[in-house]
TrEMBL record:
Keyword field: Cytoplasm, Hydrolase, Magnesium, Manganese, Metal-binding, Nucleus, Phosphoprotein, Protein phosphatase, Repeat
Organism listed in the record: Sander lucioperca
Designated name of the protein: Protein phosphatase 1E
CDD domains, per the entry: PP2Cc (cd00143)
PANTHER family attached to this UniProt entry: PROTEIN PHOSPHATASE 1F, PROTEIN PHOSPHATASE 2C
A Pfam family: PP2C
Sequence similarity: Belongs to the PP2C family.
Length: 413
């Protein structure tokens, strides 16, 4: 049985892609642990690991007779690297037992993430998501600016592209020199880098999947959203929906023109599709339809003034059934439902900031399903101020009739 391997490029890429493997494992192992401590321990162990000579972990190419071996490509034994990383984590924890590190400063901005995802009526769950409130601590970034990362990926043709993007994009972003000075360029480069690396993996493993993506980076008073395809992010400020982006769809006029200029076409087959295949015009993967299905991300940046309520990220399984203008009312209704089964309006106010509002995403997913969505549904709601404040400021407006979420689908991670 062949040893599972991770594909690497030149030496400068070895450390980056080792980081992919280790951080992905760390986020899985420490799920549910205090985010700040797990991020700091992960960074400590990773720093120690990258000082090691990784040459003993290289493994030979296993190309087919009909498959060319790409030049300057190295394969690394991922299981062996993870075992070494686990040992470094243990060493770090033992060192902490002797001398506990100084805790990181508390973030200056309130952030609370509510997320829920269901397979719905589809045969497979192809959505992925990631929330990293401790972005700087995880990657050892010390620029004095709080940074948090949130992303939703909607896969199609298999889950491989979505899984790959969910474990690689944030690492590629963290390595961009322009991350602070030009976040939009950093995002676009990170998306392109992720698409290029997945292309090598897809060629080697004969994968045909793709994924849309929407990612949000909150740096200090600046919110940047980057996207490919029709997954979306929206902001709510003072109870009003704020448009952050225009999703990539084949029938969007500029996308239609771009595809036709390249010699492709869009056709209506239940919905508008690129060359009669995919219903999105931009994605990571889908290499059989490149360049018509583009891997070039778009970005937009919004300055935060302090009066923002929350930012919502979701796949098309949500937004095909729910209009953005409906979201503010639905969130308030969900907060009321989260108060107390008996309907006490002050029950949410009695909850701590760490727990209040955590079930809101579940209610929003329930709304989309009740509205007729049969697709995978992922909703990620990032509160930018305590939910208690939102409810208190809208206490004069009682809850409208809302759908109580009930499904046999368990949340998908």
């Amino acid at each position: 049985m062949a040893v599972p391997c991770v594909k690497f490029g030149e030496n400068s890429h070895v450390q980056i892609l080792t980081t992919y493997t280790c951080i992905s494992a760390c986020l899985c192992w420490f799920r549910g642990a205090p985010a700040g401590l797990s991020a700091l321990l992960c960074q400590t162990a990773l720093s120690q690991l990258l000082q090691n000579n990784l040459l003993p972990f290289h493994c030979p190419h296993e190309a087919d007779d009909n498959q060319e071996v790409e030049p300057q490509v190295v394969l690394l034994q991922s299981e062996a690297v993870q075992r070494l990383f686990l040992n470094k984590l243990i060493d770090g924890a033992l060192a902490w037992h002797q001398k506990f590190p100084k805790p990181s400063p508390s973030p200056s901005r309130f952030l609370l993430c509510s997320v829920h995802a269901i397979k719905n009526t589809r045969r497979k769950m192809e959505d992925k998501h990631l929330a990293l409130a401790e972005f700087n601590q995880l990657f050892g970034i010390q620029d004095g600016v709080d940074c948090a990362y949130y992303a939703v990926f909607d896969g199609h043709g298999g889950v491989d592209a979505a899984t790959f993007a969910a474990t690689h994009l944030h690492v590629a972003l963290s390595k961009q020199e322009t991350l602070r000075s030009d976040t939009a360029t950093a995002f676009k480069t990170a998306f392109k880098h992720t698409d290029d690396i997945f292309k090598s993996k897809a060629k080697r493993e004969r994968l045909r999947s793709g994924t849309t993506a929407v990612a949000v980076l909150i740096q200090g008073q600046e919110l940047t959203v980057a996207w490919l395809g029709d997954s979306q992010a929206m902001l709510v400020r003072k109870g009003q929906a704020v448009t952050l982006m225009d999703p990539h769809k084949p029938d969007r006029e500029d996308e239609k023109q771009r595809i036709e200029d390249l010699g492709g076409c869009i056709t209506f087959m239940g919905c508008w599709r690129v060359n009669g295949t995919y219903a999105v015009s931009r994605a990571i993967g889908d290499f059989d339809q490149k360049p018509y299905v583009s891997g070039d991300a778009d970005c937009s940046t919004t300055q935060l003034c302090g009066d923002e309520d929350y930012v919502l990220l979701a796949c098309d399984g949500f937004f095909d059934a729910v209009k953005p203008s409906e979201v503010p009312r639905m969130v308030l209704d969900a907060l009321h439902l989260s108060c107390d089964p008996g309907g006490r309006a002050d029950a949410l106010l009695e909850q701590s900031e760490d727990t209040a509002g955590l079930r809101v995403a579940q209610q929003l997913v329930g709304h989309a399903k009740a509205a007729g969505s049969s697709d995978n549904i992922t909703v990620m709601l990032v509160f930018l101020r305590p939910p208690q404040q939102l409810l208190a400021q809208n206490s004069s407006t009682g809850p409208a009739q809302a759908t109580q979420y009930s499904s046999q689908d368990a949340p998908q991670q």
